[in-house]
Design a protein that fits this description.
about 40% helix, HTH_CRP, Crp/Fnr family transcriptional regulator, four-stranded antiparallel beta sheet, transcription, transcription regulation, about 260 residues, single chain
Length: about 260
């Protein structure tokens, strides 16, 4: 298998307190380990809105995402779907089930066409067991995600839905925004239901919030696009400004 990880940076070294759940797994590995891991699997392509992994199903493989973006969700018995994270190039999904042997704890769905390398549980476990450095890197990733999720849950508990939604849009603008003549266009296709699931709200509430933001000239919406015209206004709504971090990057209680 070719070195499909050439675009990754050198092994990740945390700054400050080391809390950075946004740095993907492959970017944290040394190049030699990254190439060796990718060589264990085979590359597959998934169409947009295709489920890569399904909640509660038995697990047989992990996925290493090369291109494209996915969402990590869980579904409650009443049908409510919570959006826990967005996973993209360099991210790993399905690793927890691979290591524990338990069913998937979440569903991972493609938001755009996705290319990923599929590695069986047996090969992945053997690779991790044979490399203390890779094991520690995987542990650090899990720790970062858990700490970030705890911190964000605390932050969100003190906010109204309106404030949480403003923080979510600001974070999406930072991670998935493209500058245009009108403002910052979000280039990841999230539905109103998915936005609602990211801030623990109803679809109707998100519709009302978007209507208010449109009327105030803060955002513009179209059939497939959302443009942030006045990010400064969103920061005022969010109260915590750019220091806040939304739940959209929050990891599920257990990786699928």
């Amino acid at each position: 298998m070719n070195d499909r990880g050439d675009g990754m940076a050198a092994a990740y070294v945390p700054e400050g307190d080391g809390l950075d759940d946004r740095v993907p797994f492959l970017a944290r590995l040394e190049r030699e380990d990254r190439v060796a891991l990718l060589a264990l699997g085979r590359e597959l392509s998934f169409d947009s809105r295709t489920a890569l992994l399904r909640q509660d199903e038995p697990s047989a493989y992990v996925l290493l995402i090369l291109t494209g973006w996915t969402k990590v969700t869980t579904c409650a018995p009443n049908g409510y779907e919570a959006l826990h994270a967005l996973r993209g190039p360099g991210d790993i999904v399905g690793e927890s089930a691979a290591l524990t042997g338990r069913p998937r704890s979440a569903t991972v769905t493609a938001l755009s066409p996705v290319r990923a390398v599929v590695v069986t549980h047996e090969k992945f476990r053997a690779f991790v067991a044979g490399s203390p450095e890779v094991s520690l890197t995987l542990l650090a990733l899990t720790s970062d995600r858990t700490r970030a999720a705890d911190r964000r849950s605390l932050e969100f508990a003190a906010m109204t839905v309106r404030e949480r939604f403003a923080v979510l849009l600001l974070d999406l603008a930072h991670t998935h925004g493209a500058r245009t003549g009108e403002g910052i266009e979000l280039d990841i296709p999230l539905s109103k239901q998915e936005l609602a699931g990211a801030v623990s709200a109803s679809r109707e509430m998100v519709q009302r919030l978007l209507k208010d933001l449109r009327e105030r000239g803060i955002v513009r919406t179209g059939r497939r696009a959302l443009v942030i015209v006045r990010p400064d206004a969103l920061r005022r709504i969010a109260r915590a400004g750019e220091s806040a971090h939304p739940a959209v990057r929050q990891e599920a209680p257990q990786a699928p």
